[in-house]
Amino acid sequence: MEESDALEELVRAHSDLERLTDELADARERRRTAAQRLIDGGRGTTWIAAQLGVTKQAVDGFVKYKQRKTHAEK
Hints:
Layout: H1 3-40, H2 45-52, H3 56-63, H4 65-73
């Protein structure tokens, strides 16, 4: 692989990572919001966890992320 090919691939990969990072942040926020809506509607974290195939602790973690982040910034 020539240097120009390697540089082109590096730039493409970097661009992909930036795009995917933004998409991931958006998806995490949508997941938090949707889970909170379900909790506000009476569903528990155990039920949500079963729907996602994750642990209750994982749901607790992403639902409470903003609370921890806000508390840490104070």
